[in-house]
Predict the structure.
Amino acid sequence: MVYDVAVVGSGFSAIAETANLLRLLPASSSIAVVGDDPGFGRGTAYRTELHIHRLNVPAQRMSIFADRPDDFADWLRTRGKGVPPDGFASRDDFGRYLRDRLAALLRERDRPVLHFIKAKAVACEQCSAAKNAFRLDNGSLLEATNVVLCLGIGNADVSVDVTHIEGPMRERIVTNPWRLGWLSHVKPSQTVCILGSGLTMVDQVLALRAHGHRGPIRVLSRRGLLSHAHADSKVEPIAPTLPASRDMSALLASLRQQVRAGADWRGVMDGLRPLTQRLWQELSPAQKSRFLRHALPWWNIHRHRLAPLVASRLDALGKSGALRVYKGYIKDIEAAKCKLVASFRPRGESGLAQLEADWVVNCTGMERAGIRHSPLLRQMLQDGSIRADELGLGICVDQSAQIVDRNGVVQPGLFALGALTAGQFWEITAVPDIRVQARSVAEQIAANLAV
Ligand SMILES: Cc1cc2nc3c(=O)[nH]c(=O)nc-3n(C[C@H](O)[C@H](O)[C@H](O)COP(=O)(O)OP(=O)(O)OC[C@H]3O[C@@H](n4cnc5c(N)ncnc54)[C@H](O)[C@@H]3O)c2cc1C
């Protein structure tokens, strides 16, 4: 069978695309969804069951549907969840909401045929306007006229070589913290060293405490910057004053000036959001790479803010001394006398310092993971059917999220969604942006099928 559409992936991007396709395609069409995650739609972000793992975006902006922005806030209200529209629901509840919405669409009578295929796509054997054919890890071939890759971007590797550490000590280096199984092996009094101080670190700290861990947590990152919190009460977005030039320094100076003149910085950051994709596209490649080299950590802590409850938990851990943050560059990790020793050069110093721990957890983030994590993307890159974007963020797509091949030719009917397309859009990792992209891709596919 040649499907009209294949959606490859099982996180938010995949469920948002599937839901939009179910709403927009004629009942005569067929959709295959290929994913290996039993909790379809939850992906990395929403598979947690811990209530303290909160969304970092207010409920009123987390609807799966771009054209029904209050949908999630309404879902919470009708279930008596007690989260106001500008409050921060649990990510577990958001996962339930996504599956609930898909289930409702699947109950409708006049809808496209939809087949879930539990597998991983491992290779693309044909990419053409007429048909795309993907080999699955169960040996079968999946054929579809349109394909939407919703693969996420995996996790960055530990930045130092740890292959020389073997046996049980190696198991105490957690390279991918999203496989939450490691938490149940940590003893309450053990010391945990976390590499990276972003939102992944915050998640792991909260998860450790929820699992009964009471020992010291040491966090090491290059700048030691922690995400700011959302304000306790709603801050309205403020239109940013932008300079005529698209120079990074001029842009930042102008925003700083606006804040110095009295504007709430959170309002200015939120006011930037609808403009960020356009601003990014107006920057030259050199300016974009300057931004990534110098401004990214500051962007992240202002832009990706913590729910107030989460921030106060983290603050309390810092004040009690249980959580300590170090600024420095990791140099190596060794195993010695049943401990792991992370050597690092403290920022601004020339000598080395050491952190001794029972566990080392890699939380160095996702945005630089690129395409290395995916055997499918590696094969497609080698084959020339995709091209890595020049900043190493993901793959090249055009303005409508269609994949561009090695020769710069757009592949009709072959799309990518979410953070994989950050080279083109930058602001495309969170629900409010992905849902717009998912809708737009579904509309294009509906138009392709109507021809
Ligand atoms: C911890 C965390 C919290 C977040 N909180 C928020 C929030 O509060 N608000 C917000 O707006 N955004 C949040 N985000 C951003 C989040 O990235 C997006 O909301 C969204 O979850 C991204 O989904 P995705 O489907 O693109 O990627 P992923 O969630 O990574 O899903 C990709 C899926 O594709 C599957 N896959 C990969 N390769 C293949 C293959 N070859 N074949 C088949 N399947 C494959 C994977 O197994 C995976 O399940 C958060 C992110 C994280 C990590």
Q: What stands out?
A: The mean pLDDT is 94. The CA atoms of residues 107 and 446 lie 21 Å apart. The first helix runs from residue 12 to 24. The radius of gyration is 22 Å.
